[in-house]
Design brief:
The protein is an alpha+beta fold. The protein is 40% helix and 11% strand. It contains 13 helices and ten strands. The longest helix has 22 residues, at 250-271. It starts with a strand and ends with a helix. Bound molecules: zinc ion. Zinc ion binds next to loops.
Length: 357
């Protein structure tokens, strides 16, 4: 007889740290057990629907989903949830992303911070004064949407408020990554909004990068200006500070950080090549915005008129390639220099004639 597996049994397996892959191939899963395995409430990538049939090709999905209104309430419930296997998996993933931002030189010292939303009013976050490259799962804290610490032995980062400013206003922001990647931070210090319509992948996966006015890090004002911008922008350059990005999970939010810094780096290098920067134009951007929307990512630019789409009027290309001008252009209108050039030219010609050239 085929064994029936219920949601409760799956939860018990997960809490014992057992792999759901060990469920017999011919087992019958109840609908709620199947939901649990397919991502609702599990932190891992989508698990196979059933072992009875070959699994369908699927897109990896790390988004954490919860039932609204189901947050643990009592201190004991909160502790149990904070120490559950599904949260352990996210804590580990936060440490991995911390290592990646540190290895990419996106953070130095104790810089940067990470958050993952795991409930209506529950957010995992990195602690203050710690290198993001060397965190352990036990270092991760948990706060509510007002930034009050609910769990964890280390003190939460003060910059969590900026992340919460975004999460409160944009429910799709399930994770935020903040770092100081050098190229994008250079744009932040120069207060230059990166131009658009230059690289298609950036338009699709990153959308328009926002530039938020400077406010002191960790203050309610900073949380407000960045939070408001986060409604329409998944990547925000914060003036004189760094970058904050958001995504449906921490991997997604981290990718936006990579995309932002790589984009700023390319624009910076292109600006040095001595030619103007070429845009592919508003009509082509409209195609890319459609692709972005089809992938489930909104874009406020869908409402803009064509003439507003590739408006890079504020972009200052900066220093261009330092190729020295020809000497005769420098000497124009300077009789003394002209005499010297003529004397040198005469000398060279005389020498060439002497050598039969
Ligand atoms: Zn910072």
């Amino acid at each position: 007889m085929r064994r029936v597996i219920t949601e409760k049994e799956i939860k018990e397996m997960l809490s014992r740290g057992e792999d759901p892959g060990s469920i017999p191939a011919d087992a019958l899963l109840t609908p709620s057990a199947r939901d649990l395995l397919s991502g609702n409430g599990t932190a891992g990538p989508r698990a196979p629907q059933s072992n009875a049939a070959p699994s369908e090709p699927h897109i990896p999905d790390y988004e954490y989903r919860w039932t609204p209104g189901s947050d643990p309430k009592s201190p004991e419930e909160i502790q149990r949830f904070f120490n559950s296997p599904e949260i352990a998996q996210i804590k580990k993933r936060m440490c991995d992303i911390g290592r990646r931002i540190w290895e990419k030189d996106y953070v130095d010292g104790n810089g940067g911070n990470l958050t993952v939303r795991v409930g209506d009013n529950l957010i995992l976050c990195t602690p203050t004064l710690i290198s993001k490259g060397f965190m352990k799962p036990a270092d991760i804290c948990m706060v509510d949407l007002d930034g009050n610490q609910l769990a964890g032995t280390l003190k939460r980062t003060s910059e969590v408020n900026t992340h919460l400013g975004i999460m409160k206003r944009q429910p799709k922001a399930k994770s935020c990554v903040h770092a100081h990647p050098p190229h994008a931070t250079a744009f932040a210090v120069a207060s230059v909004k990166p131009p658009t319509c230059m690289i298609p992948e950036a338009e699709v996966f990153l959308g328009e990068i926002g530039l938020a006015p400077y406010e002191t890090p960790g203050t309610p004002e900073n949380a407000r200006v960045v939070g408001e911008m986060g409604v329409d922008h998944q990547a925000i350059i914060m003036e004189n500070h760094g970058v904050i990005t958001w995504g449906k999970d921490i991997e997604d939010a981290y990718w936006k950080m990579e995309n932002t810094d790589a984009y700023c780096k390319t624009i910076w290098v292109a600006s040095q090549l001595g030619k103007g920067l070429k845009t592919f134009g508003p009509e082509k951007l409209q195609d890319l915005i459609e692709i972005r929307k089809s992938l489930g990512m909104e874009d406020r630019r869908a409402e803009l008129r064509e003439c507003e789409l590739c408006d890079n009027g504020e972009f200052r290309p900066g220093v261009t390639c330092a190729v020295p001008d020809r000497i005769d252009r420098h000497t124009e209108g300077d009789p003394e220099a002209e005499d010297m050039v003529r004397a040198v030219t005469d000398l060279i010609e005389k020498e060439l004639r002497r050598n039969g050239g």
